[in-house]
Amino acid sequence: MAIEGETTAGHEAKAAKAHKFLGSLRDALMAAGRDDAPIEMTPNAPAAAAKPASDEKAAPPPLPPKPQSLSAEEAARLARTAPEPKPEAAQPVEAAKESDVPPTTRVVRPENRVKKVEPEPEAEDAPARTVLVRGRRHIERGDFERDPVVGFLIVVGGPGLGSYRPIFEGNNTVGRSKDNRIPLDFGDDAISNEAQAYLRYDSSDRSFLFVPNLAKTNVVSVNDKRPAGPVPLQPMDVITFGRTQVAFLPFCGSEFDWSEISEA
Questions:
Q1: Which of 1, 65, 99, 203 is most buried, with most CB under 10 Å away?
Q2: Phi then psi for 152, rounded to 5 degrees?
Q3: Is the pTM of this model over 0.70?
Q4: Buried b or exposed e, range 72-92, using 16+ CB within 10 angstroms
């Protein structure tokens, strides 16, 4: 019986020791699952004294200490000794991404559309701006609308100095009136109103002939000589009508005549 009692006491001691170890292990595992509870290993504490971690409430964090009020002198001293804040560097503003911009709808009306102006086709009959001419170009000639000019009378003295009058092919009357073919209407009253003389050009022999009108009493002279009949004219002969002097300047003659062009 004594041996059986010792065996039972040994089993109970071993069971109590195992139960105490298991209780400590359970408490350590439950404490490890909490964030604010430190892990404490108490192998000698009784299992009944340990409380489950789920029944305990988490302790609130400690409040920060209240700032103590500073006197005016201490605040001024801290303001002087405090380092000046550095200005923040301006950051470039990034352009908004296309994905961040909401889509917009644009309404295009027919009247707001820009019409494309098409160039007008050039007329087929319009002549080209640049014409390439090779060699001698043929000149088209027609009939004379009036008698062609064959020479000139240029006023070199008296009223109308510097003026000129053309001489036409055939017979030309010279006088003060505008009805004459060669009117010397520059204000010289000494010139006869009607034909005071005649000036002829003969295209057959290409010669000029001055014929005074002997029925008139007005003074007429060629190179300071009063003619009594027809006088052939030479280039730069000076003819005097009253107080007006004119120089004869031929255009046609032995070197040129309008018949050359008409025949060509």
A1: 203
A2: -145, 150
A3: no
A4: eeeeeeeeeeeeeeeeeeeee
